[in-house]
Amino acid sequence: MKLRILQSYLLLLVGAICTSLSAQNTLPSSSYRAISVGVGGAILSDEYLTPLRYGGSIYGIRWEEEKALKLSLPILLHSDASFAYATVLNPAYTAKMDFIRGEFQTEGLYLWQLPYGVKFATGPGVRLTMGGRLHSRNGNNPATLDAKADLTIGTTIAYRLPFETWPIAFRWRVTYGLIGLSNHLAYGESYYEREFIRNGVARSFLFTHPFNQNYFATRMTIDIPLWNLCTLHVGYQWSYDKSSLKRRIRSAESHMAFIGFSLEQLTFKGRKAMRNETHRTLLFDTFQ
User: What is the distance between the alpha carbons of residues 11 and 15, in angstroms, rounded to a whole number?
Assistant: First the structure.
């Protein structure tokens, strides 16, 4: 009796392993990559430097990638890295603030098939940022450091037109910050004294949550294959990042239009690449 139970258990285990391996082998594994440059507008505030809000132009470059994790489940790994520079003026146009920020974000998204070929993916992620602001007329506190680490939740909705001639792909991404760490100083505190003499860099980081920090970003993209030449990548992004720590508000709101290319298997093949049987992405070809 025990031997039969053991044999049945082993058969079930082998069957489960084979099923898992079969599913893993059938999941599409080709990567999607895109690079773009953008320009737009930004509104910045940092009460460590000035009580006023500054407005102006922002410029950026971004690299993003989608690929399948090496699992039997339809889990999409989305990563992007970006660098932005903004130059903004006060309401009277008498003072300038420069803003730079580098950002890296990665998310693990579980994929579902919705009616009419729409794909829906959602899951947790991590966002790391490093940058700062430089004020042209503040002699006592001329600059601030902006460093953050956040746990996020992201959602992607995607659809590709079912046409052989123009398989245009649409993506809509939304990211929201949950909890994390952010460096912050009260007004009048010295970066040098706080971070290098008294307490050290680690002690300047504070715990953040939705009640003292809000981060939200949405990004809409369209990939348009131009015959068999290349795939045009265009879109729009709006982001809002505001924190209120130690009774001091720091915020960055921006909107940006961008243009670039999406790279199917690191080639510029346009329609030929998007409809190639050997190039099957997890996002669009999993449930076909």
Answer: 6
Give CATH superfamily name and number for 29-275: OPCA outer membrane adhesin/invasin (2.40.128.100)
At which residue do the structure tokens 């010295």 appear?
190
Enter the pTM of the model: 0.79
**How far, in Å, are 70, 140, 144, 182 from residue 188 at the CA level?**
50, 9, 12, 18
Cβ count within 10 A of residue 132: 15
Contact yes or no for 144/46 (Cβ under 8 A): yes
Q: At residue 84, what is the residue type?
A: A
Q: Where are the beta strands (DSSP E) in the chain?
A: 32-46, 50-68, 75-89, 96-113, 119-135, 143-160, 169-183, 205-208, 213-226, 230-245, 248-264
Q: In this structure, what token pair is assigned to residue 119? A: 């794909």
- Each residue's pLDDT expressed in tens, for the chain with a length of 288 residues: 544 544 454 444 344 334 443 444 455 567 889 999 999 999 999 887 888 999 999 999 999 999 888 667 888 999 999 999 999 999 999 999 999 999 999 999 999 999 988 999 999 999 999 998 988 877 666 788 889 999 999 999 999 888 877 888 999 999 999 999 998 766 556 655 555 555 556 667 889 999 999 999 999 999 998 877 788 999 999 999 999 987 888 999 999 999 999 876 545 556 665 555 555 566 766 655
Cα dihedral 53, 55, 61, 62 sign: positive
CB 281 within 8 A of CB 30: yes
Task: Report the candidate in 286, 271, 255 with the shortest Cα–Cα distance to residue 57.
Answer: 255
Every domain of the chain and the residues it spans: 29-275
Range 222-250 burial, b when 16+ CB lie within 10 A, else e? ebbbeeeebbbbbbebebebebbbeebeb
